[in-house]
Design brief:
There is one protein chain. The protein is α/β, with parallel strands linked by helices. The protein has one domain: Thiamin diphosphate (ThDP)-binding fold, Pyr/PP domains (Rossmann fold, 3-Layer(aba) Sandwich). It has helices at residues 2-22, 28-32, 35-43, 73-79, 119-132, 151-162, 192-198, 211-222, 258-267, and strands at 61-64, 139-144, 168-174, 202-207, 230-235. Helix 6 (151-162) links the parallel strand 2 (139-144) and strand 3. Helix 3 crosses helix 8 (211-222). Residues 32-264 form the Transketolase N-terminal domain. InterPro entries: THDP-binding, Transketolase_N. This is Transketolase.
C-alpha cells in the first residue's frame, strides 16, 4: 500500500510539472512541497469525500489555505472524478475554471480564503458548526509555514483551543521558505511545537515526503478524541524534486523553462 501511495505521489508530481508548463504563472515550488500530503489524504482515504456528491453533509471538509501552492490538487481531483481529466489541458485558458491560483468554482475546493492566513479561521467556523450539529465529520486545513506570521492564524489557534475543537486537524507544510527568503530570516517560529502546546493543542511532527509515515500519523490523529485540536508539522522541501528550486530562498517566485521541465520528466520515466 505504501509503495503504491509513493508511486502515486511521484505521478502527481510529474502531472503538476506538466501543468506548470501549460500555465507558467502557477507557483510550482510551493505546490511541489505538499504533494505527498495531498496524495495520502485523498488516495489513503483519510479525507472522507464523494466526488459525485461533493456537498454531502457527512463529508470531511478540507480547507486549503495555501491555495497558490496546491496545484497538485488539480490532477488528484481530476483522477478521482471531481471533474473531467480533459480540463487539465485547459488550465490558465479563457473559459477554464482551472487557473494559476485555485478558485472555489473548482469541484473539490471548499472555499477561497483571499489573503494568506484566513484558512484556519474559516476551518474553525466549520469545525464549530459541525460540533453544534453533532456531526462527526473532520475539518482538515493545510497552511504554509510562512502563513504563521499572520496574526489571524494565532487568533484562530486560540479560538480552537477555547472551543475544544477536537474535530479540527491543522497540517503545516513546513517547507521553511516563504516568498522572499527562508522563514528563519523573516520571523523564526521555532521551536514550533512549543508554541502550539502553550495553546493546549495536541502536536505531532512528521517527515512530509514519506507516505508511510504520513498515512500512519493521519490515521492516528483522525481517530484521536481528547477535546484538543491537532496540529501536524510536516517537514518538507520547497520545490521538492527540482534540484534548482530545492533550498533556493527565492524558489517561491521562480518559473521553470520548458526544457527544464522536459528534462525533469524524462529523468523520472
Amino acid at each position: 500500500m505504501f509503495k503504491l501511495l509513493q508511486q502515486k505521489a511521484d505521478g502527481i508530481r510529474q502531472e503538476t510539472l506538466k501543468l506548470h508548463l501549460l500555465c507558467p504563472e502557477t507557483r510550482i515550488a510551493s505546490s511541489l512541497s505538499c504533494i505527498e500530503i495531498l496524495t495520502v489524504l485523498y488516495y489513503g482515504k483519510i479525507v472522507k469525500f464523494d466526488s459525485k456528491n461533493i456537498f454531502a453533509e457527512d463529508r470531511d471538509r478540507f480547507i486549503i489555505s495555501k491555495g497558490h501552492g496546491s496545484i497538485g490538487m488539480y490532477p488528484i481531483l481530476a483522477d478521482l472524478g471531481f471533474f473531467d481529466k480533459n480540463e487539465l489541458q485547459k488550465i490558465g485558458k479563457e473559459g477554464s475554471f482551472l487557473g494559476g491560483i485555485p478558485d472555489p468554482i473548482i469541484p473539490g475546493y471548499e472555499t477561497i480564503n483571499g489573503s494568506l492566513g484566513n484558512g484556519l479561521g474559516v476551518a474553525c467556523g466549520l469545525a464549530l458548526a459541525l460540533k453544534q450539529k453533532k456531526l462527526t465529520s473532520k475539518v482538515f486545513v493545510l497552511v504554509g509555514d510562512g502563513e504563521l506570521n499572520e496574526g489571524s492564524i494565532w487568533e484562530a489557534v486560540m479560538f480552537a483551543s477555547h472551543h475544544k475543537l477536537d474535530n479540527l486537524i491543522l497540517i503545516i507544510d513546513n517547507n521553511k521558505a516563504s516568498m522572499l527568503d527562508f522563514c528563519r530570516n523573516i520571523i523564526n517560529l521555532e521551536p514550533l511545537e512549543e508554541k502550539f502546546k502553550v495553546f493546549n493543542w495536541e502536536v505531532f511532527r512528521v517527515e512530509g515526503h514519506n507516505c508511510q509515515k504520513l498515512y500512519k500519523l493521519f490515521v492516528k490523529v483522525k481517530n484521536s478524541h481528547d477535546d484538543k485540536s491537532k496540529v501536524i508539522i510536516a517537514d518538507t522541501i520547497k520545490g521538492k524534486g527540482v534540484p534548482r528550486l530545492e533550498n533556493d530562498p527565492l524558489s517561491h517566485i521562480k518559473t521553470l523553462k520548458k526544457d527544464e521541465v522536459e528534462l525533469l520528466l524524462k529523468g523520472s520515466e
